[in-house]
Amino acid sequence: MADLRRKVSHLVGLAERYDVGSRSREGKIIEEMIDVLRDLALDVEEVSVNQAEMEDFLDELDEDLLDVEEEVYGDGDVDDDDTMNFDDDDDDTLLDDAFLDDDDLDEPSYIALECPVCHKESSYNEALFERDGIQLSCPHCGNVIYDSDEDCIIMEQSDDDDEDDYTSYR
Is the four-CA dihedral 151, 157, 159, 161 of positive or negative sign? Predict the structure, then answer.
């Protein structure tokens, strides 16, 4: 980057020595181009400095992440104290209890809502109803049929299929 500034300074010196800018239209254009080059050289130097600082920051962040990984996952060395013995019977309960919840294995459940305007039913992922600031629109007519800030969902058990039907109430 110092080389770029040196070259621009050399152009400035040549322009001053030959008195380029004051006599002709072309000279004024060249003088403006030199000013633009000077600004670009300063900007490139600033970007280069920022990039070097960012590289240093990323190196520090990488080292910190490595420390965290070693703390969480271990350093790769297995000591006698670090080994864990599991019986065959314990493997299943460990997976079931600690890592996998029965809900994690289920398919996503859907809630069926009937539009009060067109009276057509549409299904929506149940996870949407757990969020704040959600508005659901009828895909048929575009009417807002659920607004999490105003509505609440009440579950009704259907008699025929043991499936849950939901109704939106305002």
Answer: positive
